[in-house]
Amino acid sequence: MAAFLPISHTDNEQKCSNLMEKTSERYKETLPKLPKAKGWMTQHLVHYQGVWLTPKAALKGLMLIQDHFSPRPTDILLATFPKSGTTWLKALIFSTVNRSRYSFSGHPLLTTGPHDCFPFLDAYVYENDRCFHHLDRLPPPRLLSTHIPFTLLPTSMSCRFVYICRDPKDVLVSKWLFMNKLRPKQLPPISLEEAFELFCQGISHYGPYWDHVLGYWKASLENPEKILFLKYEDLKKEPCAVVKRLGEFTGHPFSLEEERRGVVQEIVKLCSFENLSNLEVNKTSVQKFSRDIVVDNRHFFRKGEVGDGKNYLTAEMMERLNAITAEKLHDSGLVFGY
Ligand code: A3P
Q1: Residue 86 Cβ < 6 Å to ligand 1
Q2: Which family does it belong to (predicted)?
Q3: 275 CB near ligand 1 (under 6 Å)
């Protein structure tokens, strides 16, 4: 369950390590040539294969995944644009898939943060870039999450995906507040106006936001049995219905008997904002994603509401974002509610 397993060395791992070295060299050669823009959390973001990434973990993690990750049909990948509901969905998928293993009274989520129960693939490979064998040792179904756009993942991805998207106005505000908390003290804070302009231009981690959402949306239309596309707003409105869909999709459908016993409601309650945000582990512990990314768990729980963007953005900002969204999603069949 721990995100980072101890590293040991065998001959196979040595071979693997040599291949990783090649990717590291490619990374070192590529990085200085990439276009740069202002970063939200780091000083800069770099532009690689059409997406904006932090220059260390995100870029190198992507390259390692593209070169070496071998997905399995039993894998469940949670894919998100940052601040769209990753933490919540990690808890819901983890507790749905593992519900026969754990009782609610002694559940791992009561003492372990959602990000430790359900590791980030991107950060995991960056941290353990000497070898991918550690991932191979995780039992099926491997629950892994990623922010990588669908179109940049290796074409051999034979696993199933759950994607969650959220209204861009709430994503932008949530992201701005979160990134300013993580931004090193030596860099001046980034203003909302500046974050807004960057977001509209597509410049934010794993942005442009609209390309990210559309990539998974189109793939889900083409392959609905492989990609379950969810919206944060629907999850807020009807959590039990969405959890039942998650059960079906992940191959762990709820039986009538479980429904009668209220198992779906128990999962929703366990993973609710009120419950998770008040647990000691989520109030006081840190999440160590990699050697350079350590985040206080409490930062993943702010308000958890729909529509909070309008408490920060001006009417003009909302209008402009709505107009960009309408233009980008035009004809796609995907719409946001507010
Ligand atoms: P806000 O900043 O709008 O409150 P991510 O997990 O992708 O980083 O997204 C974080 C957002 O999800 C934050 O939104 C956070 O408060 C919200 N969130 C975290 N846990 C949640 C939960 N259990 N239920 C609803 N929202 C949750």
Answers
A1: yes
A2: Belongs to the sulfotransferase 1 family.
A3: no
Domains identified in the chain and CATH numbers: 32-328 (3.40.50.300)
Assess whether the C-beta atom of 276 lies below 6 angstroms from ligand 1.
yes
Residues 6+ apart with CB under 8 A from 2: 116
Tell me the per-residue pLDDT of 143-162, one tens digit each, with 9 for 90 and over: 999 999 999 998 878 899 99
Contact indicator for 60, 26 with CB cutoff of 8 Å:
no
Q: What is the pTM of this model?
A: 0.94
Q: Length of the chain in residues, anyone? A: 338
Nearest CA, atom 22, ligand 1: 273
Q: Ligand 1 pocket, 80 CB below 6 A?
A: yes
| Catalytic residue numbers, as ranges | 147
Query: Among residues 132, 201, 168, which one has the least CA distance to residue 326?
Result: 168
Type of residue numbered 47: H
Give residue 302 CA to ligand 1 midpoint distance, Å. 6
Give the full edge-to-edge strand order of the sheet including 227-231: 143-146, 76-80, 160-165, 227-231
Helical H segments across the chain, by residue range: 11-30, 57-68, 86-97, 114-117, 121-127, 133-136, 168-182, 192-200, 209-222, 232-237, 239-249, 256-261, 263-270, 273-277, 280-284, 315-329
